[in-house]
Amino acid sequence: MQTQSVLDEFKNEPFTDYSKPENAEAMRAAIEKVRGELGREHTCLVNGERISIDAKFKSYNPAKRDEVVGVFSVVDDDLSIVENAIDAATEAFNTWRFVPAAERAEYLFRIADIMRQRKHELSAWMVFEVSKTWAEADGDTAEAIDFMEFYGREMIRWSQEQPITKIPGEDNSLEYIPLGVGAIIPPWNFPLAIMSGMAMAAVVAGNTVVLKPSSDSPTIAAKFIEIVEEVGLPPGVVNFVTGGPPTGEAMVTSPKIRFISFTGSKGVGLHINEQAAKPRPGQIWIKRVVAEMGGKDAIVVADDGDIDAAALGAVQAAYGFQGQKCSACSRLIVDEKVHDALLEKVVALTEQLNIGQPTEGDTNVAAVINKKAFDSTLSYIQKGVEEGGEIVTGGTGDNSQGFFILPTIIANVQPGDTIEQEEIFAPVLAVIKARDYDHALEIANGTEFGLTGSVYSASEERLERARREFHVGNLYLNRKCTGALVGVHPFGGFNMSGTDSKAGGREYLLQFMQGKLVSRKV
Ligand code: NAD
């Protein structure tokens, strides 16, 4: 494979402007193409071979609950497939780890090129499979392209000479080498970007992987696997298995797995961490676990904050992708002096949102992922009211056609209330009144999570205090708390939000490598 001699600097993939008729037309055409391909079967990929078993599960369109998006093998029913995938990855690691970094990176650049050519088609799959609006799906595809371009360049950087102190009489070097076989377990909410970013970060670092997508978003992962095959990655470098928790569990507990890269909920992340800590017969290493988990992210609005900007930021961050982002604003903490004025603006903007099918270009809010999410959201709303919250707008759902929940604002929520503490992962915003700025920061820090947060204030001193005291991995000042860009806003959280791996940042790849020092007497 040829490597590019001169790499240009990393730049984020631009978002598509769907107000331009030609772009909207291209997206509509992609949606129709994908519509014609719904309901097909997609197979597993083990050691470069396509595999399927009789036991099947289906992935459905959340906005049209009976529409089948894809059909997949349930590997849970034959876990020898997982074993074979891990063996294939173990075998492939013996050669893949010695492939020069620049050559490995080149595969990612080619994947990025194909993703660019198929941008609208990939986005359209997300419209159907996870109910992303056009803009949200486009953002996901752009982020996936960014991860390929960024991690490719990063690996080339890590493969260069590392700075160490020189001494006479010895020739010393520090080199970063890969770990081994990784279990890649992504969530459904950034089904292309996070899934492909997690997998290919590990692969470009010289590891081989077994990838198990979420069973809510396997089709978009299968489309990515087609691209992986197209660029000709050697067999066994990326293995693809589909199933539920038993499949994931078999990956996590295998003694041949060297590391686990997980993104998902706190409960599953903690469980995986515990399972991974236990050495199994034949295991000769401590498994490394990278676990990025949930959030209970807050926007704090001080009495001197720009309330128009804060209202817009809160609405975008609370309801973008139906609030199903780990970075979504689920708590709006407002100084009581501006509480009523801000709330009025937030409600007005929320009520302007267009709820509908994600296939329509003017939809702002579509369906939540599945029935479980629909039911749990409604019970959280009920709990919020039982604990004294007051529904200001929304509060209901309709699951006759798909899993639609009205963008909901619950005011009069108190610090410590269930809906102020637990991740709901849906379009539900809790509004909490603070006595002053000190109190607002205290409330903001008062959960077990620490992923993203925002502060709106005109005061330098208050913004500085937030910089020091607001304990989150991604803090945003006078802007919304969603929309992290690869390279620009390395992403990861504190406390129960995870291991702070900073996806899209310059340290990220280090988690999939180990340093080897070689000292030679001269
Ligand atoms: P989830 O925890 O339900 O599932 C995540 C993955 O784990 C899926 O692929 C699932 O099949 C797998 N899994 C489930 N049980 C398993 C087990 N016992 N062993 C191995 N694997 C198992 O999460 P989700 O619903 O897919 O995603 C939403 C969650 O992800 C939210 O909590 C959100 O905040 C979080 N998230 C975090 C980040 C971040 O960067 N911190 C980013 C995106 C999403």
Mean pLDDT: 97
The share of residues in extended strands comes to 15-25%
- Largest beta sheet: what is the strand line-up? 14-17-18-13-12-19-20
What can be said about the biggest beta sheet? 7 strands, mixed
Q: How many domain modules?
A: 2
Number of strands: 21
Q: Per CATH, what is the topology of the largest domain? A: Aldehyde Dehydrogenase, Chain A, domain 1
* CATH level-four homologous superfamily name of the largest domain: Aldehyde Dehydrogenase, Chain A, domain 1
DSSP helix fraction:
25-40%
Q: Architecture of the largest domain, according to CATH? A: 3-Layer(aba) Sandwich
Roughly how many Å apart are the termini? 36 Å
Report the principal-axis shape.
globular
Number of helices: 15
Which class do the helix and strand fractions yield? alpha/beta
Radius of gyration computed on alpha carbons: 23 Å
Spans of 5+ residues with little confidence (pLDDT < 50)?
Answer: none
